[in-house]
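Lecture 7 notes. Example A: sequence first, then its structure tokens.
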Amino acid sequence: MALPQLLPSPPSSSAFTRKPSLAPLSSLTRDSAKFASLSPLSSRRRKFHTSSLRCSASSFSEKHHTGSPKSDDLVELPLFPLPLVLFPGAILPLQIFEFRYRIMMHTLLQTDLRFGVIYTDAATGTAEVGCVGEVVKHEKLVDDRFFLICKGQERFRVVNIVRTKPYLVAQVTWLEDKPSSDVNGAEDLEALAAEVESYMKDVIRLSNRLNGKPEKPEATDLRRNLFPTPFSFFVGSTFEGAPREQQALLELEDTAARLKREKETLRNTLNYLTAASAVKDVFPTSS
């Protein structure tokens, strides 16, 4: 699922290693699978079915929040820098063809099938915070390429680089949202999550209207009983095409702050879509 034409929220007071920005997104349907790969996976004819693993709110279970490693643990993790952001609970299809990452895959298939996905781009470099991707399905081809389906698990922060060859390995610590000190924190989070869900529904409804699409029944229950923290990750994962903003959301260690930022972004987007819808009503032939 991806939300259309997201507009930026005001800068957060939190310190980030980069300033987030949002570029307009193209309209995608809720059922669109995100094929982020080193070579476009969708352009090749494959029998690698992913329909049962598409990213939706139901993918964002509480599993990665229970029994997670302690935040002060220091562990070595192979890293896979990519121009995208993986969130806990999100599904990520990948194609592996570069030699060093094929070596990494052979190692992972003999161990725990977990590696770190970390955002990188030419302008800001490589981020310090990423998300563990766990291989839940894979296919090895005769030419030693791999097709993978990964699911986001714990977040991590890079502490030290262990080595860069044949692939990047770093020492990382685990990152978790800090619990609220407010006695009414849980109730406030529930109310905030409900507001975010309401904005998402309105954005989807107006987007479908502008694109001449009927409203889908599934848009009536976006949250699917998720607790606020995994729901905030789900919302962040829908901001496809805006990786710097997604990275800023991933780095936040406060569920309320993440939901508030998402709420502001969705509100700005809704205002834009409302204006666009009004223009379309006045000038029906306008594109």
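Example B, a different protein, same format:
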Amino acid sequence: LSQHQFNDCKVCGRNNHRTLDCYYKPGSHDGGVPSKFIKPSTITSFPVYIKIRVNDQPTEAIVDTGSAISIIHLNFLKTIHHKNFIYKNHTCQTANSTSLNIIGQIKLEIKIKSITTYVVACVATNLITSILLGNDWINSNHVHLYGDQKKLTIPDQHDQLISIPYVEPTCINYPALLIRQITLPPYSQQLVDIICQINNAHNLIFEPYERHISKFIFMPHTLLNINKNQAKVLLINAQNRQQTLSKNTRIGTISRDATYTIYATTQIPTKNNSILNEHHQTSTRHYNKLKFRAVL
């Protein structure tokens, strides 16, 4: 790697090494685990995704040089074969002062092309992606990230560098349709059943179809759990007359946000035990006309 011309290090400014390997980087003297928070994604300004297989289950992983540890979402762990789960509750504080709820750890097999690696990952209930590979995996496997070339390299069993391209995250973007015709009385709200092309999924983003705003029909932006292609959404009629929407009317879009916040984590427990469960709901001033309180 010495023959490569590196970009200026974002820590010390020199160009004879990568930011990931900087001697002066916080935590570089204590085994690579940050002793304090560092700026996430120091090599690139966007999340790095690669295709991997976790215990032989294909998925896309975030590779983050700003995280001291690797983390897997509990919901994704439930979909793969695994054993020897160790229960161990604690909280990891993130760079934006929110908390990750860690319930244990597990050893995982991570395959990239023909290369097999292993990592002991923390299991979280509120991670924003299926799996995140942190510095524990990056450093132990001599992984180097090249943001300008949109790739990373990892040596195989013969010490030959294998190039792994970055990939765009899979983005779910499907219409949400009414299952049946509904009639909304004046100044009322109603939970309605919707259907979409997604079979089962958790924490998908629902965004209202803007054309209904002109009719004073409002819906909160919210997170949905899809079960057998169905979910419930709150509709609010802010008009002084009843309104009817026919079966299969498109009322919004269901998607998974591709712009993630990358967490820089430490192993230090925090007294702040709040979980990322404050789902911001967007509304407009028209809601003030309602005689009822909207509750999801």
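Note on Example B: The first helix runs from residue 74 to 77. Helices lie at 74-77, 135-140.
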